Amino acid sequence: MTVVSNFASLKIVTIEPLYDNWNNFLARDLFGQIVDVKLKGFGAHYPYGVMPIDTSDFISTHHLICQERDGELEVLSAFKTVDLNKAITHNLTFPALSLVKLAGDKSHIKAIEDVMESALKNEKSLIYSGSYTMSPVARENKVLLTMLREIFNAMYVQYTLDNNIDEVLVGATMRFKMHELFGSMGYENLKIEDKDTTPIFVEHLAKEKVQIMHLKEFSKEALQMPEKYKYLWDQRLVISNDNKTIKDKNVA
Predict the structure, then answer these.
(1) What is the DSSP string of 114-166?
(2) Which of 65, 103, 205, 225 could anchor a disulfide with 200, C-beta 3.0 to 4.6 Å?
(3) What is the pLDDT of residue 87?
(4) What is the pLDDT of residues 136-145, one digit of tens each?
(5) Pairwise CA distance, residues 178 & 93, whole Å
């Protein structure tokens, strides 16, 4: 990967679920890059054996920050979102529930199941967001690193608003202070009988300490995040399941 020298080359890309989109060559190419970035990104912080991808990657919406060079896209940073109804359709365990089951915490399992049941009963949209990673090469440039983090915040909020998502669950890695970032955005610790849960230790992430957090409404601070990078959002690429790459349908 070439180090970014021109920040104007940055582009936001959204890939709709690969299960519905596999015939799209660009989707497959970028997905291969996502796997590469995850293996390198997670490999820089975790021991051999930690698996940064799973079956849910094929039903997730992938959100990328890329650099565009000579008509080609290179993935710098990525995260994914998984819709509860999509997981149900494909008979897969909702990733938020899978996360706490792997940690073996019965109280967290009940709390997540309650959130899921409430969302389904009240016909609210619920997603899990996770697997945020960044290319090790991108981390070497401090200016770029800061910019990528800001763009991540902006696109995270804008995607949630544009798609009328009611609630979001995340697993915030304490070591990387993700709980502080999500807390500033309006997330609260997952609750059990109105009491904050404590962090869990996730076995498949080498017993990483993770706080499960729940978003119902963004903070005022979070709602201001998209404005700075609105030009990137308006120019983003959406790789859809109609076998072609299109600009966002809402952009004239």
Answers:
(1) HHHHHHHHTT--EEEEEEEEE-HHHHT-HHHHHHHHHHHHHHHHHHHHHTT--
(2) 103
(3) 98
(4) 888 889 999 9
(5) 24
Containing 214, the helix (H) or strand (E) segment is: strand 208-215
The pLDDT-based confidence of 15 (bands split at 50, 70, 90) is very high
**What's the rounded Cα separation, in Å, for the pair 167 and 187?**
10
Position 238 scores a pLDDT of 96
The three-state (H, E, C) secondary structure of 1-44, written as one string: CCCCCCHHHEEEEEECCHHHCCCCHHHHHHHHHHHHHHHHHHHC
6: number of Cβ within 10 Å: 9
pLDDT at 250 over 60: no
- Ordered by where they begin, the domains of the chain are 7-247 (3.40.630.30)
Looking at residue 244, its pLDDT comes to 46
